[in-house]
């Protein structure tokens, strides 16, 4: 399969045929984006077709020189990426209003720090409307870390990107996640904290600071009340923690992010 690296037409609009071919190649394992490792990039595919498409479009735009980060301010980069994803979402019919998500949900759960959470009509998944800028720098960072890398490390609660929205001038991601029926870990109870430390030790992590765990590859932030669940069988579920590579800055690691190129073969 011949895969084009240029996913935009001369007028700057998305070439849907080329995007579909590149996405199919990644989902079939014929190609991959090299931002993360081969194993970690499987989390990008687990995030669904829209997650892969959004990743490809942002990478292609940067590759074409339209979003040269060394010349643009941070705010310009954010606005550029949001506009690209907004146009893509409207073209694909995945630009929703939060009001319709709420109307079509079974119930709204207590809001999180950065998201509003709704239970789908079947009670199997939750739909989260996430204000990514509370804990992430750019839309691309959210896709790479909070969806793709997260899915690789926490497969039992993987996110699927299903759309986008905007409220009060804030661009937001819409993701789907399994609805975990278990009690939230009580971070004010010493016994629960001991259970957590033991579990994280089994997973190869040590505590760096309150709510932060680290190993040679990853740093897990925001491990706090509401983000960790424990069922009656002793199984842990991490549902809203923040995953990032353990890079030189700020955590003294050796991992690096790739340049987002599309690799084939």
Question: How would you describe this structure to a colleague?
Answer:
The protein is α+β, with helices and mostly antiparallel strands. Helices cover 35% and strands 23% of the residues. It contains eight helices and 14 strands. A five-stranded antiparallel beta sheet has the order 2-3-4-6-5. A four-stranded antiparallel beta sheet has the order 8-9-10-13. The longest helix is centred in the N-terminal third of the chain and has 19 residues, at 74-92. The protein is globular and about 60 Å long.
Number of contiguous helices: 8
Strand order of the largest sheet: 2-3-4-6-5
Listing every helix as H and every strand as E from the N terminus to the C terminus, the arrangement reads HEHHHHEEEHEEEHEEEEEEHE
Overall structural domain count:
2
Q: Kindly state the mean pLDDT as a whole number?
A: 92
Radius of gyration: 19 Å
Question: DSSP strand (E) fraction?
Answer: 15-25%
């Amino acid at each position: 399969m011949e895969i084009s690296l240029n996913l935009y037409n001369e007028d700057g609009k998305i070439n849907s045929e080329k995007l579909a071919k590149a996405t199919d190649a990644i989902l079939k394992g014929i190609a991959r984006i090299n931002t993360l490792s081969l194993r970690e990039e499987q989390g990008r595919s687990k995030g669904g077709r829209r997650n892969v498409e959004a990743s490809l479009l942002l990478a292609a735009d940067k590759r074409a020189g339209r979003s040269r980060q060394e010349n643009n301010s941070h705010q310009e980069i954010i606005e550029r990426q949001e506009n690209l994803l907004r146009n893509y979402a409207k073209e694909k019919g995945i630009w929703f209003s939060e009001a319709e998500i709420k109307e079509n949900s079974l119930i709204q759960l207590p809001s999180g720090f950065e998201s509003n959470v709704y239970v789908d009509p079947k009670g199997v998944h939750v739909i989260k409307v996430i204000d990514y800028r509370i804990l992430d720098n750019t839309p691309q960072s959210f896709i790479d870390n909070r969806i793709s890398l997260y899915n690789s490390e926490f497969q039992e609660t993987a996110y699927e990107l299903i759309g986008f929205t905007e409220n009060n001038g804030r661009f937001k991601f819409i993701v789907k996640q399994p609805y975990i029926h278990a009690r939230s870990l009580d971070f004010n109870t010493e016994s629960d904290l001991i259970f957590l430390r033991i579990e994280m030790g089994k997973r190869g992590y040590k505590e760096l600071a309150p709510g932060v765990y680290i190993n040679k590859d990853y740093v897990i932030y925001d491990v706090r009340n509401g983000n960790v669940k424990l069922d009656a069988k002793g199984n842990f579920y991490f549902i809203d923690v923040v995953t990032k590579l353990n890079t030189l800055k700020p955590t003294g690691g050796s991992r690096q992010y790739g340049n987002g190129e599309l690799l084939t073969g």
